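Annex B. Sample input.
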Amino acid sequence: MALLYPPLKKVLHRFLLLQNTRLLSPSLRCTNVTRNYTAINAGWHTHEGDMGRGRKPPICSAFIKLCRVTLSAGIGSRQCWKCQGDVPADTEFCSSCKSLQPLDSHRNHFSILGIKMNFNIDTQALMRKFKRLQTQYHPDRYSTKSEREQQFAHDHSSAVNKAYRCLLHPVDRALYFLDLAGQPLEEGKVALQMIDLDPEFLMAIMEVNEELAEATSKETVQSIGRRNTEILNGLLSEADAAFSCNDIEKARTVVAKIKYYNNIYEKVKSFEREHGIVD
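Annex B, continued. Sample output.
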């Protein structure tokens, strides 16, 4: 019998339990969970030599996180807290009593806003989604509801606000993508891992910062800002390509560079605001 890494075994056990109790309807999403589990478990055997030293496969934690989200999203329907009726998976309202349901804490920002999980997103479409959801969960719509449902509306509204703020800004969006992939840039032990940046890149950043610090005219600062924006746009395109190919290591390096240039961008904007160039 194949040797299963314990946390992965626990995830699969939960998946099978949901199927046996008919809480999880068969779907392509369910098939993907078992297929991915099989693939990862096969990869675990390549790390059997590390098992005796208590080390985990490098992608274990990311896979478990993915499974948790997938299992949660794969449930065909939920039970309404108020009337125990069925709540379809594609809505937050009971089909019988129309009551708002509690927020699923496992949903990611893309799921909350109802958009496809891509790094390159249409910000105008994102804004339209945001406004529609804010109207849907507005407190005035729930003023005559129970305190419990008012709290649910508040939770949903807060989650929508948080998701929108994160996904609207490309740098925050890039950092969030790394977090979803289990490779955050600034969190826990991963923060201690040095990203190998080219010394020439670091020197170029230093020179731009010095040039910006010595600038005395708005023309000079705006020129720096234009060059910086071009570089930022190029790096964002690189990040999009890396995320699309699921090349997380490359994406982390690119996002690290983006953060340096975004810092310069913020300095330029600060100068422009101080000198009345922008609002």
